[in-house]
Automatic annotation (TrEMBL):
One of the record's GO cellular component terms: acetolactate synthase complex
Domain called Thiamine pyrophosphate enzyme N-terminal TPP-binding: residue spans: 5-87
GO BP of this protein: isoleucine biosynthetic process; L-valine biosynthetic process
Family under the similarity heading: Belongs to the TPP enzyme family.
Protein name: Tartronate-semialdehyde synthase
A GO molecular-function annotation: thiamine pyrophosphate binding
Cited InterPro entries: THDP-binding, Thiamin_PyroP_enz_TPP-bd_dom, TPP_enz
C-alpha cells in the first residue's frame, strides 16, 4: 500500500471533489497542507487577512456560479470559531 502524508491525501481529496480555489490564512499548524497544495498543484490559494474574512470569501465564491465549492482553510486555535461567522 502506498503511503503519503495526510496533508497530501487531503489535497488529493479536495482536487477529486473539484476544488480549484481555497481561501485562508497560513499558520504553523496548517503549513503542511499549504506545502502539499504547492507540491501537488491544482488548487489556487487566495490569501485573506483574517480567517473570518476568508470564510466570507469562500461563501461568496460558492454563490457566484453553480458548481463552485468554496473552501476556507484555517489554522488551529481560534480560527474555527472565527469561521463560524461566515457560515
Amino acid at each position: 500500500m502506498t503511503r503519503m502524508p495526510a496533508a497530501e491525501a487531503a489535497v488529493h481529496v479536495l482536487r477529486k471533489e473539484g476544488i480549484e480555489v481555497a481561501f485562508g490564512v497560513p499558520g504553523a499548524a496548517i503549513n503542511p497542507s499549504y506545502a502539499a497544495m504547492r507540491k501537488l498543484g491544482g488548487i489556487d490559494h487566495v490569501l485573506a487577512r483574517h480567517v473570518e474574512r476568508a470564510s466570507h470569501m469562500a461563501e461568496g465564491y460558492t454563490r457566484t456560479k453553480a458548481g463552485n465549492i468554496g473552501v476556507c482553510i484555517g489554522t488551529s486555535g481560534p480560527a474555527g470559531t472565527d469561521m463560524i461567522t461566515g457560515l
